[in-house]
Amino acid sequence: MDAVDNANDVIWQIGVFDAHCHPTDIMASIKDIANMKARVLTIMATRSEDQDMVRDTARQYPLKDSTWNARNPSSRYVVPAFGWHPWFSHQIYDDVKEDIHPDQVDHYQTVLTPTPDDDEFLKALPAPRSLRQFLQELEERLAEFPYALVGEVGLDRSFRLPQGPSAMTGDMKNKTGCSDKDYTPGSREGRPLSPYRVSIDHQKAVVRAQFELAAKLQRPLSVHSVQAHGLIFELMQSMWKGYEKPSKKERKRAMDAPNAHQGQDFPKGRNQEKRPSYPPRVCMHSYSGPPDALRQFLAPTVPAEVYFSFSTAINFSNASTAKVTNVIKAVPDDRILIESDLHCAGETMDRLLLEVIHKVCEVKGWDLQQGARQLKENWERFIFGAAPLV
Ligand SMILES: [Zn+2]
Asked: Which domain holds residue 36?
């Protein structure tokens, strides 16, 4: 028992970094961040209700520069992520190219599938809001925090809209140890489902606009993808067109050519001098794709750094353990992140982070100290970029 505790102490001392979580879903838990063992939480915004909460939480636990660790290892920090989640994408209308103000029922009939004929259901949904206006607010929020990410954004082919008012079930309370009494409104947790989905074309418009803002500001992304890895990859690929790195073959051909100079005359990568048109770093959160799908994200020609983050809740539920083991083995050591994906800060979050660190270390064959160091380095590189840290 002592040996286990000591090993865990070493992990906490090195530092634990949650790459993706939602504690603003229970605002009453935010005060508990100060007493957590985890050093930094990367907190996602998802919908209209939580954008200001994430901002206020980040103001409360500010991480001002990349020297944070050297200065005060006992402090706790929050890195905010601002974005609009695909589960709420129907609440936005796309007025980026055209100045439109759609009627509520018309809008929802356009973006939901199958087309609902239940006007009562559509009128009970929130009034849809402008994508253009949201993007402006998003840019302002990102400007306040130099290390803020764009997230949680993405595509989800399997979710359906909930029906009726938000409510947590007894099961969910037990799982997380959190009380539901102060649950932030707007969540879809614990509600019966309607037959309606958000059309994938609409989801794509909402996510693309946010990817483009991340590219413009050169911020990392935290991406939610369910049955949509191919589509996410296509979107990223369309953004980095012309910036691909040379493939191994091209590299070799250039080296072999007469008068070749190392690092020059590659047929691709011609735009390397300009500011890149794609987000520099991307985290595929609670990555659920098969090992094969990793290959395209990790191809040598891909100019963005793609990370894969794993959580106990999503990735190590009984049904998927074998799959995730193979995926973790296939992800390069320097591209793995860990996360709780939990909606409540405190001891449960610490425990879930510790659990997933143990599991990743076991699969990778790392000892705990080595694993904790690697995961720390990965998180720092994902947030701050490749610039050397003090
Ligand atoms: Zn999430």
From this structure: 2-240+276-384
Amino acid present at 100: I
Is 257 domain-assigned?
Answer: no
Cα(277)–Cα(270) distance, integer angstroms: 13
Q: How far is the CA of 365 from the centre of ligand 1 (A)?
A: 27
Q: What are residue 41's DSSP bridge partners?
A: 18, 78
- Spell out the residues 6+ positions from residue 127 whose beta carbon is closer than 8 angstroms to its own: 104
Residue 91's domain is classified under what CATH number?
3.20.20.140
In 3D space, the residue among 278, 363, 281 whose CA is nearest the CA of residue 81 turns out to be 281
Give residue 388 CA to ligand 1 midpoint distance, Å.
29
Task: Choose among 127, 124, 152, 138: nearest CA to 45.
Answer: 152
- Distance separating the N- and C-terminal Cα atoms of the chain: 36
The total number of structural domains that make up the chain? 1
Query: How many angstroms is it from 44 CA to the middle of ligand 1?
Result: 7
Query: What is the chain's pLDDT, residue by residue, as a tens digit (390 residues)?
Result: 567 778 899 999 999 999 999 999 999 999 999 999 999 999 999 999 999 999 999 999 998 777 665 457 788 999 999 999 999 999 999 999 999 999 999 999 999 999 998 899 999 999 999 999 999 999 999 999 999 999 999 999 999 999 876 544 444 444 556 666 678 888 766 678 999 999 999 999 999 999 999 999 999 999 999 999 999 999 999 999 999 999 888 888 887 876 655 544 444 445 555 678 999 999 999 998 888 889 999 999 999 999 999 998 778 776 678 888 999 999 999 999 999 999 999 999 999 999 999 999 999 999 999 999 999 999 999 999 985 444
Q: Tell me which residues have their CB within 5 A of the ion that is ligand 1.
A: 152
Q: How far is the CA of 152 from the centre of ligand 1 (A)?
A: 6
- Tell me, yes or no, whether 361 lies in a domain: yes
Task: Give the three-state DSSP class for 93.
Answer: strand
Tell me the CA–centroid distance for residue 95 and ligand 1, in Å.
Answer: 26
Any domain includes 270? no
Distance in Å, CA 247 to ligand 1 centroid: 33
Give the residues across from 44 on adjacent strands.
81
